[in-house]
């Protein structure tokens, strides 16, 4: 057997085994409804619709941002106003929303960029978001949000 043939014969089983290690992740059955909930949450923030934001958060929701964790009530009284101001003032773009689901639980991930000015200061940040949702009688509700960001300058 010549060298290229031998190399192919030795590498082919490796390629086959590697391809089977990466199985596709199934699509979430309620993908559209879950994505609609997440999009509605962001739209409500950008419009300053606090009631709509709170309606999409489950009563036991947890919000994690900048190393702090808040309950839904704490978020409403301590941080929601600033998030609304920021969302209205600074345009943000988001990557495609990745949606996964196990029964009545779902989680979404997205990355994005925020660029603009907030309270007189320039903003250029890369963002990541993880949301955990639960299916309720009222539809999908957000049970947890984790936001992180860092300066967009490289």
Walk me through this protein's architecture.
The protein has 154 residues and is an alpha+beta fold. The protein contains 5 helices and 7 strands. A hairpin with a 2-residue loop joins strand 6 and strand 7 (139-151).
Looking at this protein, list some descriptive labels.
single chain; 154 residues; alpha+beta; Nuclear Transport Factor 2, Chain: A; 7-stranded mixed β-sheet; 39% helix; 42% strand; globular
Helix and strand layout, with pairings?
Layout: H1 3-21, H2 31-47, H3 50-56, E1 57-65, E2 68-71, H4 72-78, H5 80-89, E3 92-94, E4 98-102, E5 105-118, E6 121-136, E7 139-151
Parallel strand pairs: 1-7
Antiparallel strand pairs: 1-2, 3-5, 4-5, 5-6, 6-7
Short note summarizing the structure:
The protein contains five helices and seven strands; from the N terminus they run αααββααβββββ.
The oligomeric state of the chains shown is single chain
Q: Low-confidence runs (pLDDT<50, min 5 residues)? A: 6-22
For the record, the CATH architecture stands as Roll
- Specify the biggest β-sheet: 7 strands, mixed
Overall average residue pLDDT: 87
Write down the Rg: 21 Å
**CATH topology heading:** Nuclear Transport Factor 2, Chain: A
Helix percentage: 25-40%
CATH domain class name: Alpha Beta
Number of helices: 5
N-to-C order of helices and strands: HHHEEHHEEEEE
Helix/strand-derived category reads: alpha+beta
Number of self-contained structural domains: 1
Total number of beta strands: 7
- Approximately how much beta-strand content do the residues carry? 35-45%
Overall body shape:
globular
**Intertermini distance:** 50 Å
